[in-house]
Amino acid sequence: MTHYGLLCPPTTGHLNPMLALGCELKQRGHQVTLFNILDTAAKAKAVEINFWPLGRKEFPLGTLGNFYDHLGTLRGLAAFQTTLNFRQQVWATVFLQEAPAAIQAAGVEALLVDHVIVAGGAIAERLSLPFVSLCSALLMQPDDSVPPFFAGWPYDPAPWTRLRNRFGHALLVQYWRMVHQPVNEYRQMWRSPLYLNPSDALSPLAQISHQPAEFEYPRQYLAPYFHFTGPFHSTVSRETVSFPFEKLTSQPLIYASMGTLRNRSHRVFEQIAAACVGLDAQLVIALGKGLAPEALGALPGDPIVVGYAPQLELLQRATLAITHAGLNTALESLQAGVPMVALPVTDDQPGVAARIEWTGAGEVVPKSRLTTARLRTAVQQVLTCETYKQNAVRLRQATAQAGGVTRAADIVERAIATGKPVLTQDFSKPKPEPCAPLFNSLPSC
């Protein structure tokens, strides 16, 4: 059996899929250890995965909470810049300085590296360890045929859009190089070639995305060992969350969540509640970090408001999800066949929202144009037009056929056991059952 080390950002959207894959490997008899800051220890302990603390002095317990409190007050480019600055600090202080020695001391034999942890590939190369890249957000690899991940631009194969996309990717690469300068400084010290673009830091054995292929734009350039396996979501890798299920009625359920990070805006939750007043539906709002239910006071329509919710269980009951378009929540909604109304804020959320709209599985209301009236119109449209549900169900079928965490673990095991690239063509997902074309039934209601 193999001892796997896990390297990923300390945030929920990256930890959950990484720990789900770690749990699958652990159940297969492998040893698994998460290397991260102290604030992630509880999550590892909850799923009985080994934990090795890094950056105890620089990032004491409570660091993430303070960071989230600040981040929750920011929007757009400022929020994006703050997130990247924090990641740069973690990479330079924790992963590059401490992780190599810790990984060696723990006896790790292979690494699973989140694709935004650019230092992970450098560390694996430095220690001569095989590694597999896990993409838990939209792909960052430059490709002129699709918009960059941070843009909410719609997919369009027209020639002029390739110029627009090329410009966006060029900006991204320049920014990427600036933010990841600490990694290149270490690589220079280690006499390794410098990383010039996001693809350079990814595994040469296997790259795994927890998107289904059907939720990604048609890309021209992907590595021959790139795999779309669908989401890794599982209650096994989640902490238990209490919820007043007895308060749910027989009405259709609308589940609303703006994620766990950028959700400090009272106004957004008030607009969500007001937009759902008078509908034949029951609204549940999950606030995440930063806001307490009592801080909101009475909301229009008297929805159920909780700090945290058992999201996977509620989505199984939901008719509609109102979401910030974080990739994890979007995929969890589609895994349950639930259409969405997306209110993207920052990071890759505009890109995720654009894909929700492109697949016909929901509508988008940009934060810059958010009003109660616009949101209510979008909610009513998705609730009443059956085509949104049909497209969400088709994506649910595609997700089920993609293989999920089981197929991802199979790919990881083969890559590490053979030390050779696991080619997509040689490791295809099971042939899907015939179904109607996914994107030919856009809403006409």
Automatic annotation (TrEMBL):
This is Glycosyltransferase. It comes from Trichocoleus desertorum GB2-A4. It comes from the Bacteria. CDD domains: GT1_Gtf-like. InterPro entries: Glycosyltransferase_28 (IPR050426), UDP_glucos_trans (IPR002213). SUPFAM superfamilies: UDP-Glycosyltransferase/glycogen phosphorylase (SSF53756).
